[in-house]
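Please, structure for the following, as tokens.
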Amino acid sequence: RSYKATQCLIFQQTAIDYYLDETNLPVIRMYGMSTDDRRVICHVHGFRPYMYFLAPPGFNNHDITPFKSWLHAKLNRMVPIVSCELVRRRSMFGYIEDDDESVSSFVKVTILDPAKLRRIVDILNEGSIVGSNGQVFECEKTPYESNIDFVLRFMIDNEVTGVNWIELGAG
């Protein structure tokens, strides 16, 4: 029996994986049992893999669009980039709680295929990136969160633990 959009569905997630759909977009798949002992497979669309790297000194929001174009070209246009954005984060290396000086600018790169994050890391390992007006920035070769498994990243970001109860609202 399938649930109508007017009903809430609660199930205990027992396994989780992902697959690429017919358009090569990742889809999280959660397996479980509903509260009335029915098997459930929940397909979650729209979650995308991402990674960070420390923004080089002087790199700002004006550099994001040219950087995205440069990165796409470096990837031979084979890896669709969903977005690049400048975000403020704390590095866990040398972390100091509630210290405003420990907050740094990072570039968050979001793509479509989890398996392709490694290609971006390889480009960053070359040690430089390009921003606006063709300006070359030397960058750290340390990527952040690029090696976290896609399913694990989904679980962390959505606070899903193993054998967790999942509630899907009506609609």
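The CA atoms of residues 12 and 165 lie 4 Å apart. The longest helix spans residues 61-74.
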